[in-house]
């Protein structure tokens, strides 16, 4: 029997949680819409974040008591933004068959779990916080794990720069799926093709850092399976994976995420 994906396993746990709390039929509105880059991360000085360049959008789900009272928010990055409005049951009935639907579900689940105070940092940090967070991530990894070889799956420019400055470019590997980045040298690190270089990156790294956005684009399970097979240390960074990491007891790192 094939093991369900991490996202499906999390959905099953989420469904049981809603049932135990008597919330599965609660008629509470969950609305999701794409945010502009300014709404999502404010006005950072550096302009090379994918969301600023227009390659990604942020979906924000809001649980509202009324139009003027937002109880909780949850966000997720996606390359297929759109609009969704419905109840919790509508959210649970949504098929997880494409990036847009997965983003809706993940953002909605993040909002619900934040509303229940079962997870936190479900809203992206803004302005200069993403860059500060990147430096703190690198410093945390160095302090906790020592000087080792770090593999970054998915190019986050601020994180890659911080890792390169902290560990040295020779001790950092990075893959990305964007053809504009592949084989380019960035901060002393050559970007590998994520379609073919993922397993080599994991094999050659001591610690793996990857974004919760992989839950949306359906690459999480391949990455996580390879990490577990090789027994590598890992961290899922950012706000997208907040709910799944909480439900599935996964290592998450996010220093400046917000709760509303």
Give a brief rundown of this model.
This protein has helices spanning 6-20, 37-41, 88-93, 99-115, 129-145, 157-167, 194-204, 220-229, 242-248, and strands spanning 29-35, 57-66, 69-78, 84-86, 150-153, 172-176, 185-186, 189-193, 207-211, 233-237, 252-253. By secondary structure, it is of the alpha/beta class.
Shape: globular
Radius of gyration: 18 Å
Strand arrangement, major sheet:
7-8-6-5-9-10-11
SS strand fraction: 15-25%
Structural class: alpha/beta
Number of distinct helices: 9
Question: What is the string of helix and strand elements?
Answer: HEHEEEHHHEHEEEHEHEHE
Euclidean distance between termini CA atoms: 40 Å
Helix residue percentage: 25-40%
Q: Give the integer mean of the pLDDT values.
A: 88
CATH topology of the largest domain: Rossmann fold
Number of domains: 2
Are there runs of 5+ residues with pLDDT below 50, and where? Answer: none
Describe the largest sheet. 7 strands, mixed
Second rung of CATH, namely the architecture of the largest domain = 3-Layer(aba) Sandwich
The number of distinct β-strands equals 11
Question: What CATH first level of the largest domain would be assigned?
Answer: Alpha Beta
Describe this structure in words.
This protein has 260 residues and is α/β, with parallel strands linked by helices. A hairpin with a 2-residue loop joins strand 2 (57-66) and strand 3. The protein has two domains: 6-115, no CATH class; 129-253, Rossmann fold (3-Layer(aba) Sandwich), CATH 3.40.50.11590. The mean pLDDT is 88. It has helices at residues 6-20, 37-41, 88-93, 99-115, 129-145, 157-167, 194-204, 220-229, 242-248, and strands at residues 29-35, 57-66, 69-78, 84-86, 150-153, 172-176, 185-186, 189-193, 207-211, 233-237, 252-253. It has a seven-stranded mixed sheet with strand order 7-8-6-5-9-10-11, with helices on both faces.
């Amino acid at each position: 029997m094939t093991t369900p994906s991490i996202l499906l396993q999390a959905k099953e746990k989420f469904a049981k949680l809603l049932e135990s709390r008597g919330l599965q039929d609660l008629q509470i509105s969950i609305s999701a819409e794409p945010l502009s880059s300014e709404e999502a991360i404010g006005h950072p000085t550096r302009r090379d974040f994918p969301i600023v360049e227009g390659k990604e959008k942020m979906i924000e789900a809001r649980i509202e008591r009324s139009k003027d009272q937002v109880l909780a928010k949850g966000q997720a990055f996606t390359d297929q933004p759109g609009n969704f409005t419905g109840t919790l049951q509508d959210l649970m009935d949504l098929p997880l068959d494409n990036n847009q639907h997965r983003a809706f579900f993940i953002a909605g689940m993040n909002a619900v779990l934040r509303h229940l105070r079962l997870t936190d940092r479900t809203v992206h940090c803004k302005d200069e916080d993403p860059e500060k967070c990147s430096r703190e991530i690198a410093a945390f990894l160095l302090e906790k794990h020592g000087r080792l070889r770090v593999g970054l799956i998915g190019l986050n420019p601020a994180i890659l720069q911080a890792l390169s400055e902290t560990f040295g470019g020779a001790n950092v590997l990075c893959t990305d799926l964007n053809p504009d980045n592949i084989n380019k040298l960035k901060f002393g690190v050559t970007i590998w093709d994520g379609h073919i270089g993922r397993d080599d990156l994991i094999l050659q790294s001591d610690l793996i850092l990857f974004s919760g956005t992989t839950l949306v684009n359906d690459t999480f399970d391949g990455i996580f399976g390879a990490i577990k097979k090789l027994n590598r240390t890992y961290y899922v960074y950012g706000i997208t994976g907040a709910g799944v990491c909480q439900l599935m007891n996964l290592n998450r790192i996010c220093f400046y995420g917000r709760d509303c």
